[in-house]
Amino acid sequence: MRACATLVCGSAFSARVGVNPLFLLGKDLIRARIRRLETPEDRPVQANEVVRQAWAEVEPELAEQGYELVEVEFSLQGATALLRFFIDKESGITVDDCATVSRFVSVLLDKNDFLRDRYTLEVSSPGIDRPLRKPADFDRFKGEMIVVKTVTPVEGRRRFKGLLNGYHDGLISLDDGGVERSIHIENVKKAKLDR
Asked: Whole-model pTM above 0.85?
């Protein structure tokens, strides 16, 4: 089960974002209005640029609040952009945690003039199929089943499923049906637990 809070932005809503934002709660949904999604040069924002900047700005701030930033995703959903943060903490994530972090991140992004166009901000727990991104994740979940998708093929394949044996010197080690596989972390497009 995944806890989730969503900040939906659009001209149809009359909520404020800032120090005293108004949020409309309904079935794990938070709605507010935010700015236009264009860089100062009026060009579309690149997804990897947004993700990189979001990690840099949000991760240290969340750590101070006692949360771990697990993953950041950015994509276009029709005419609206979706910025999704996956968070965790030792005791687990609740819907209240997601709502709290959503409000906190909204103010932080607004203060830092992060995105200027309408976008949806979603804050979620990592769920049962938790993304694995950092080297520490691959040590922490040693012994768990995982799925790894690679950027470039390894031995002719891009998708691997197996028992995670750990991480050492930049290599993720997994048992893929009795065959030991080593995949360099920089070749990982996406990795997640497979529970």
From this structure: no
DSSP per-residue letters across 142-172: TTSEEEEEEEEEETTEEEEEEEEEEEETTEE
Residue 126 to residue 132: CA distance in whole angstroms: 10
Measured CA to CA, the distance from residue 28 to residue 146 in angstroms comes to 28
User: Residues 134-191: pLDDT tens digits?
Assistant: 999 999 999 999 999 999 999 999 999 999 999 999 999 999 999 999 999 999 999 9
Report phi then psi at 134, rounded to 5.
-95, 155
What whole-number distance in Å separates Cα of residue 13 and Cα of residue 11? Answer: 5
CATH number at residue 61: 3.30.300.70
What would you measure as the largest C-alpha separation in the chain, in angstroms? 57
What residues contact 87, with CB distance under 8 A and at least 6 apart? 62, 67, 68, 69, 70, 93, 97, 98, 101, 123, 124, 125, 126
Is 46 part of a structural domain of the chain?
yes
Structure-token match 């943060």, residue found = 85
Same domain, 9 and 68: yes
Give the residue numbers spanning the domain of 120.
4-124
Q: Do 40 and 88 share a structural domain?
A: yes
